[in-house]
Design brief:
With 311 residues, the protein is of the alpha+beta class. The chain folds into two domains: 3-112, Aminopeptidase; 145-302, Gcn5-related N-acetyltransferase (GNAT) (Aminopeptidase, 3-Layer(aba) Sandwich). It contains eight helices and twelve strands. It has helices spanning 13-26, 34-43, 95-109, 123-131, 175-186, 199-207, 256-270, 285-294, and strands at residues 3-7, 51-57, 62-70, 79-86, 114-120, 135-146, 162-166, 218-222, 225-234, 239-247, 275-281, 297-308. Strands 1-2-3-4-5-12-6-11-10-9-8-7 form a twelve-stranded mixed β-sheet, sandwiched between helices. A hairpin with an 8-residue loop joins β3 (62-70) and β4. The protein is globular, with a radius of gyration of 20 Å.
């Protein structure tokens, strides 16, 4: 069967909804909304050279999609990413291979030398990556928590000098959250490091992300200063996802990230969300321990794969 690869048509609601459908089918552990997909494309930093590709059959059925771009926040030049998704019911038609070939050619033309991709840690996905010259590196887990059926541990008692606020309390000046996010991101385990140095760029693609729920995103302050946070993304219906949970270096080891996340999860359940998802690097033992305490269970594992372009 002939598979065609093209760019997403963001002004076509049916095209965007088809991408949402494929992403949810291929990776149901992540938040995917039409509004979020349009936002990511429209608000991407020009340096990212971001594209959303679509794979469709000759009769116009969308069966796959991919995100591709330059890892412009990495301190090491030449790094890039491609994340392909294929509808599990339509595998074997060549959509995944066509998407990866198109993305690699594009990234190489944009000056990329290394490309990174995440694949589910399953035999068919590992074989797909290996056939295309990708080498496996680190792994990460997706975790799920049934908010409707499982009892949550209570929010820990606030230590002296600590208070909790939603991110919405920082609407007039979110710069303290940017500083905390930048410090936590710099220390996050990853093959492709990131340095958040551009506040305006952070405002565009993080603070203004329509899937970021500022009422459910909780911040722990110590003597009025941001010490920890747990960012929440939602689909606006039933699904809640942890976008990032972190603590600034000066306050680590005090349980403040757990405190912020506990408050966020309780708020999410009270707001009617029934499923919570999160992801952790498999070597991030402190965060995995926190999530086990909440009752999260591993539901899937993915592997980061890398390839030198031109090999």
């Amino acid at each position: 069967m002939t598979v065609l690869v093209r760019d997403l048509r963001p002004d076509d609601p049916a095209d965007v909804e088809a991408v949402v459908r494929v992403r949810r089918a291929a990776l149901p552990f992540m938040i995917a909304t039409a509004e979020g997909i349009r936002f990511d494309l429209a608000g991407a930093n020009p340096a990212q050279r971001y594209r959303v590709l679509v794979a469709e059959t000759a009769d116009g059925e969308v069966i796959g999609t991919a995100q591709a771009g330059i890892a412009y926040e990495s301190p090491e030049p030449g790094r890039s990413f491609v994340n392909p998704y294929v509808d599990p019911a339509r595998r074997g038609l060549g959509a995944g291979g066509a998407l990866v070939r198109t993305a690699e050619a594009y990234l190489a033309a944009e000056g990329a030398t290394d490309v990174y991709a995440w694949v589910l840690d399953e035999p068919v996905n590992r074989a797909f990556a290996e056939r295309r010259g990708y080498r496996r590196s680190r792994s990460a887990h997706f975790l799920r928590l049934d908010l409707a059926a499982r009892a949550l541990p209570p929010v820990p008692e606030l230590p002296a000098g600590v208070e909790l606020r939603p991110a919405s309390a920082f609407a007039a000046d979110p710069r303290p959250l940017f500083a905390a996010d930048a410090e936590a991101t710099a220390d996050e385990p990853s093959d492709v490091g990131a340095e958040l140095t551009d506040y305006e760029d952070w405002l565009r693609h993080t603070w203004n992300d329509p899937t970021l729920d500022r009422e459910l995103t909780m911040v722990a302050l110590v003597d009025g200063e941001v010490a920890a946070f747990s960012a929440a993304r939602t689909d606006g219906a039933t699904r809640y996802g942890s976008a990032m949970t972190g603590t600034v270096r000066a306050h680590r080891g005090r349980g403040l990230a757990k405190l912020a996340k506990a408050a966020s999860l309780h708020r999410a359940r009270a707001a009617g969300y029934t499923e919570a998802f999160t992801g952790n690097d498999s070597g991030n033992d402190p965060m995995l321990a926190i999530n086990r305490w909440f009752g999260y269970e591993i539901c899937a594992t993915e592997t980061r794969c890398t390839k030198k372009l031109g090999e």
